[in-house]
Amino acid sequence: MSGNNVKQCECWLAGVDETQALGARLAGAMHSGMVLTLSGELGAGKTTLVRGMLRALGFTGAVKSPSYALVEEYPFSHLYFYHFDFYRFRSPEEWDASGFSEYFRDNTLCVIEWPKKLGDRLPIVDIAVTLSWPEVQTSMRRAEIVFLTPAGNACQSIVCETR
Questions:
Q1: Of 1.20.272.10, 3.40.640.10, 3.40.50.300, 3.40.50.2300, which CATH number belongs to 7-159?
Q2: Letter string b/e over residues 108-127, b meaning 16 or more CB atoms within 10 A of that residue's CB
Q3: How far apart, in whole angstroms, are the C-alpha atoms of residue 50 and residue 54?
Q4: Residue-by-residue DSSP string for 70-119
């Protein structure tokens, strides 16, 4: 994550509404063909952030974690939104047999939970978000957002808005 082209910011999220608001900013900044990764412990708010993205795109149905199905698909008129969860992958080799590489196209927006499970098979990532709780006792979550490609960098001013 070093280099002159990598940009990053952090946000502090007080609860569900602020986590969904960050998701909405991500959805408003990103476009088809991009890949976003979400890292963080179980219960850190990854699916809540995805719910905010989907609501901003106009989806009104239930948004659930794809923990068991591995992927949830949300088709929109202008793109396909795929939400992956690779928590249950035991090794990166499972990616090879899954056929999921075919989901990463110009007309898709792909969000990947547990990206480390893919190892070196991880597709090129435009934006990486890590959700965590600080060491001190607080109800605030920390979101670290790293913009890794030129397309990702173009999203920084929208995603990292200051209030």
A1: 3.40.50.300
A2: bbbbbbbbebbeebbbebbb
A3: 6
A4: SEEEEE-SS-EEEEEE-TT-SSTHHHHHH-GGGG-STTEEEEEESGGGGG
Residue 72 Cα distances to 5, 8, 65, 112, angstroms: 32, 28, 8, 11
Summarize the confidence of residues 17-45 as an average pLDDT. 93
Q: How far is CA 28 from CA 21, 24, 48, 70, 113, in A?
A: 10, 6, 16, 25, 20
Structural tokens at position 138: 């607080």
Cβ neighbours for 129, distance < 8 A, ≥ 6 positions apart = 26, 36, 37, 38, 39, 49, 143, 144, 145, 146
d(CA 58, CA 128): 23
Q: How confident is the model at residue 1 (pLDDT cuts 50, 70, 90)?
A: very low
The C-alpha atoms of residue 20 and residue 5 are separated, in whole angstroms, by 27
Contact of 129 with 29, CB cutoff 8 Å:
no
Please write the tens of the pLDDT for every residue from 64-84. 887 767 899 998 878 899 999
